[in-house]
Amino acid sequence: ETGVTQTPRHLVMGMTNKKSLKCEQHLGHNAMYWYKQSAKKPLELMFVYNFKEQTENNSVPSRFSPECPNSSHLFLHLHTLQPEDSALYLCASSQDRGDFGYTFGSGTRLTVV
Amino acid sequence: GENVEQHPSTLSVQEGDSAVIKCTYSDSASNYFPWYKQELGKGPQLIIDIRSNVGEKKDQRIAVTLNKTAKHFSLHITETQPEDSAVYFCAARTTDSWGKLQFGAGTQVVVTP
């Protein structure tokens, strides 16, 4: 276990569904991230949170809504997704500003049908 | 912003041979360069990193070299083993106010017995 836990591991949802992805870290890190990983593409940064405050929204469509209630938990709320949103969604954490690299979770494999 | 290019996209090597993956970056002020290994069904895991004040770093069978003048860095894996088969990502830390990591597109390494 890497110290960053993501649930669920797999998710299939219809375009009209509402679902949430959960990420929890037990490392005492202050920053948390959501990344989208699609085949043959670089990791795409979606959101950055530092001490529960959102510091970056990388032009992500509003159908993705993040929530960070505390430094240990991060959620990604999904609503009215499109088939092209199907991907592996990775959560990561870092001590501070990525100076010491990120610790990633195993990801949630999302399929939108 | 920072742009990271990674080559090759796929690499097939015989067990026991060496593997080399190269990355170039665009921002000469970038100062931190981690490498991640992603095995099937798992999130990326940090395997080695290097900072801009160092030219080379080794950890058992893996090493990373950095050429700041040319703005490129490389991952070297010696005496490859089947368990080295995975996708490898390079990254560079951006120099914006946050300092997030910009990832390369990844290299699929296949080690054949």
Structural features, described:
The complex is a heterodimer of chains A (113) and B (113). Chain A is 0% helix and 57% strand. Chain A contains no helices and eleven strands. In chain A, the strands form two sheets. In chain A, strands 2, 4, 5, 6, 9, 10 and 11 form a seven-stranded mixed sheet that branches. The model of chain A has no long low-confidence stretch (mean pLDDT 90). Chain B contains no helices and eleven strands. In chain B, strand 9 and strand 10 form a beta hairpin. Chain B is globular and about 45 Å long. The chains are: A mainly beta (113), B mainly beta (113). At the A-B interface, strand 5 and strand 10 of A face strand 4, strand 5 and strand 10 of B.
Q: Note the beta-strand portion of chain A.
A: over 45%
Shape of chain A: globular
- Low-pLDDT runs of 5+ residues of chain A are none
Low-confidence stretches of chain B: none
Number of strands of chain A: 11
Name the helix and strand elements of chain A from N-terminus to C-terminus, one letter apiece. EEEEEEEEEEE
Could you give a short account of the major beta sheet of chain B?
6 strands, mixed
State the major sheet of chain A. 7 strands, mixed
Total number of helical segments of chain A?
0
Determine the fraction of residues in helical runs of chain A and give it as a percent range. under 10%
What are the secondary-structure elements of chain B, in order, as H or E?
EEEEEEEEEEE
Largest interface between protein chains, with number of residues from each side: A-B, 25 and 23 residues
Pairing-aware structural class of the strands and helices of chain A? mainly beta
Rg over CA atoms of chain B:
14 Å
Distance N to C terminus of chain A: 30 Å
Question: Which oligomerization state do the chains in this entry correspond to?
Answer: heterodimer
